[in-house]
Design brief:
mainly alpha, 2 helices, elongated
Length: 63
């Protein structure tokens, strides 16, 4: 079975972004408890990690 290298690379990149978004959201309580961040700051980190991929995904999908 021949591998289509661009599709494999895009799939691996998409998987990494999905794992990254989940990991940052799961670390939010750690930021609040251990790093003395406010809830607003912790949610800002989660927003900053999830917003760019969420905006870029439809743009790539429209292509």
């Amino acid at each position: 079975m021949p591998w289509n290298k661009p599709v494999v690379l895009l799939s691996a990149g998409h998987a990494c972004v999905d794992v990254y978004q989940g990991a940052v959201a799961a670390l939010a309580p750690f930021f609040v408890a251990e790093r003395a961040s406010s809830y607003a700051a912790a949610s800002g980190v989660v927003l900053a990690a999830s917003l760019p991929p969420s905006v870029a995904q439809p743009l790539f999908g429209a292509r």
